[in-house]
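Dear support,

We are seeing what looks like truncated structure output for some complexes. This example has two components. We would appreciate it if you could run it in full and send us the complete token output so we can diff it against ours.
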Amino acid sequence: MNQVRITDPFWKGKQEFVRTAVIPYQWDALNDQVPGAAPSYCIRNFKLAAEKIQGKTKIKYPIPRDKWEFLPKDSEKDSFHGFIFQDTDVYKWIEAVGYSLANHPDEKLEALADSAIELICKAQLENGYLDTLYAINDPDKVFTDLRDKHELYCFGHLCEGAIAYYHATKKRKLLDATERFADFIYDWFVKEDRKGYPGHEIAEMALMKLYEETGKDKYLTLCKYFVDHRGERPYYYDLERGEEPSKDLKYQYQQAHLPVREQKEAVGHAVRAVYLYSGMADLARVTGDEGLRLACRELFEDITRKKMYVTGAIGSTHMGEAFTSAFDLPNDMAYAETCASIGLIFFAHRMLRLSVKQEYGDVLERALYNTVLSGMAADGKSFFYVNPLEVDPDRVHGDERMNFVKTVRQKWFGCACCPPNISRLLSGLGDYLTTSGEEELFLHLLIGADMDTDFGKISVEESLFEDGGLSIQISPKKAFTFYLRVPAWVDQAQVLCGETKDSNYPNYLAFEIKEDTVLSLKFTFGPRLIQADPRVSENIGKVAVTYGPFVYCLEEADNGKHLWELAIDPSTTWKFSGNNLIANGYRLQESPTEALYSPYEKPHFQATKLTFVPYHAWGNRGEGEMRVYLSAR
Amino acid sequence: MNQVRITDPFWKGKQEFVRTAVIPYQWDALNDQVPGAAPSYCIRNFKLAAEKIQGKTKIKYPIPRDKWEFLPKDSEKDSFHGFIFQDTDVYKWIEAVGYSLANHPDEKLEALADSAIELICKAQLENGYLDTLYAINDPDKVFTDLRDKHELYCFGHLCEGAIAYYHATKKRKLLDATERFADFIYDWFVKEDRKGYPGHEIAEMALMKLYEETGKDKYLTLCKYFVDHRGERPYYYDLERGEEPSKDLKYQYQQAHLPVREQKEAVGHAVRAVYLYSGMADLARVTGDEGLRLACRELFEDITRKKMYVTGAIGSTHMGEAFTSAFDLPNDMAYAETCASIGLIFFAHRMLRLSVKQEYGDVLERALYNTVLSGMAADGKSFFYVNPLEVDPDRVHGDERMNFVKTVRQKWFGCACCPPNISRLLSGLGDYLTTSGEEELFLHLLIGADMDTDFGKISVEESLFEDGGLSIQISPKKAFTFYLRVPAWVDQAQVLCGETKDSNYPNYLAFEIKEDTVLSLKFTFGPRLIQADPRVSENIGKVAVTYGPFVYCLEEADNGKHLWELAIDPSTTWKFSGNNLIANGYRLQESPTEALYSPYEKPHFQATKLTFVPYHAWGNRGEGEMRVYLSAR
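Here is the complete output from our reference environment:
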């Protein structure tokens, strides 16, 4: 693993927010110390599990099917409380802490994390099993409801947290506990050949990480076991419930409707989907499984060519937090969960490791610079779970079915997956900048950073948004080819200093590195109007404004109410104003009339200036309308 | 009351469908004789109630709050089954039968209705109370859950059915039973001054009908009692549940958030709303209550100027079947319930009785010729509950949250309000053609009919859609002024035969009638492009095609897939082809590319012919895309 320190002020600032605001807030949240927020019960459950294991109480409690949340009002005092996956709150926190400590040592924070790890390990059963829901309520029932109880999901997050923490601190305690749990899972499923697989995926990608970290084949075997049995007939989920094996396709929600190599379309819960595909991509890379590689490519293309918003958001509908049909991308009713875009980044990065392609990097950037950043407020203190491309507060408040859309970022969420996910992604951003081959290193993201890699030290500085500049200093340990991704948004890439050689990868510049080298480049790019495929019925006749990897939007604060009455002149010149863009456009003249419907008249437009702000920065000035797409005329 | 026989072939045909297809089907449905349809339990409940009253069983069963449906699987065998309002199924059937018999005597049908009435009367308690839910499960609990149990709603439909049946047959049995129940309700509420009012309105308008039919003041008093107490603080609904009186506005869903005279905006459940407003309009007319009249006008204008689709549909959201904010009229996610448009017709007609205005007639026509007609298939055998203005089957099937939209009409519905509501409206259509004053008769709808009125016989013939012709023969019993509404869709009204006089009502032609008179008119009108108020964000840059009172739409069957890629030339000439309209337009050329997002290019359009079908006729050729609004370019 490379050591990467982000130096880019923009991204470093985001990491600082995570370190100084999000991680402490998150700690309070999982300790139920945030006034006004729904309690997490996370630490409370670990404490209770530890007590139970020490034999202080022995009473068992039911863990009914189709129950996702255990509220104190209908649970016993010494039973599990909260959502069934609440253990992950602390695992994600530890992961973010791990990445943060790697960037920025902090003794107090490390001590706090050590104490949390101490507690977690006390909640582990003798046999290695570790999940507070079952440890507290009934250890005899573990893994009897794979479809809906999230034990393997919790395991996956434990794994990711343990590895990140180990990297930062070299402390093995949590990693050892993780391996013991992984060994238990291996015995349970592979040895006993139970043919089950996770209801909520993530264990697959986590096991690949654990395998690559430890080199232990059994974790690779376990991952492959889960991947291979998914979607087999008769369905495991039918069998575990004692239900008649269903004849029809079922379990799309969990991507378990078909064997994974036969899956061509992304379906069901979007986060689960991209977590699974990420694990599949890792497995394909390590095993060279061609069927799996093809499935990954088809699924990636299905998502990014048919089911992805221009902001890199995925999962159009809040019902089942799911993918819908191809080209169904409603702007106002978009679900577009922050976590799903984070998962898409995982997937895109793994596709880059599998085979280097400009488009994978483009997708990664699209999700990162827009939906993921939009998920956190400019001050790091509030969050979006849902990321629509169009908001009219009057409509949101007037229609109960839009309740899932929030017009301003929220402090926290009952199901608090997104804020911790943002914090672990941003803290660990360094991992996404590069991939490498035998004698090749690929720089995919144009973000200032100091990197210590197997090939040597690399230092990237960018002034892209000032003068298009990018400079890279390389001190190699050995000879290698340095590849630099030229994103699709670049009109022209000029090499000012350095010598390119023929590239094996389209849209990647190649440099032979044998000695200390300084590369200097100038990328020419400007604001662009982007159109969606005409099969996206919502956006016919409309365009979105982009500048580099950033999507822009209109806000009421700059452009007044009724943003839908604005149109842009496609031949506009552009002005820059801080981070904003100013363009020439038109405003439809409203002719006041009492009639809701009247005979058509040629519309009158008045020239006006339009102010666009980066999409990720919207909603930082109170409530108001926002809109990404607008008419071109 | 006037006697009206519809002679217009188009409308007579619809009435015939109701008589020959819908009414028999409905009878089977309420007798649980429709294979594959969810049982109604309606007749079953009346039989059981009759048995209970005869003392065959005496066991009581609970009627829990927040329970709307009693399924056999979780109910005792001899307890109430089905939705709590299931009694109305037979009442609406009797109402439709009554209107149908008036148009078309049918001994067998009448005998069947008599037998149903016999049964209903057996289910009436000694004290006059009549509702099978309480009669069966617990007669001691009547009227203890006004908010959610629909006893007064059932009463309202009983009333409407009884009056229609009495008019057709002069048989008083059901009307007598109704009066006994009304007397019980009067004693319960007015005498005891309980200050309650219906949760689901309709009793208000039904009581006004009963008052005007019987001349008994107590029914007027009871109606006024319900209207006046609605929205009073503390809220009755809080009190009846023993809840703390709420300080905030509550009960918008039931239009009980404010005293009715303070209500300026239509809110909550759309059907309930327009039923209430209809009752209020009748009460205002009869009592001359100015505050009530103003409230009715404001509410009517709020609906029709801010919350009504071009098809006369109302209630944008399926959540709570409710109104949303002003100008929030999504085309694809429209709820637009058939029953709500029927209620809007009730309301508009009552506004016409309150004060004659062209706009009320326009709204009535808009709802009748479009949403209501669309509710029933061309063969009268299947129905829409939900009437969107845009359907893309791929999107509907791909997104669970669009499950409420049906792409083809359904045979029947579990909550079967719409088909019987269509059948009673169409059967009773004659009632909506005219209103009258002391010495004035107003013809609002231009539908061929023979009418026997207090002023004499009037015969209307129209050939509007062939040659714009309208001819009216009048044989007066006494001198009166005949007013003829000129709809807003008429460009020019020419009187070929007859002499107009100065009209007191804008857009109504006035004729002094003293002797046998023949009026002959020619209305000039053609297809029109209609635009929505620009505050309807959905429809910016788009138009709808109308011709006379009919809204038109594009269907995939005529225009191919991807209807959103079509645009109309606003200066098009028009061709008629049967009931269809052909216009000049354009189709966006799709340039196939793998990229979902690409730099903007000026779009290319190819000239094409567009075929429009009347909105009410859509969906009669299998599943396919449909769209009312399209771009103008």
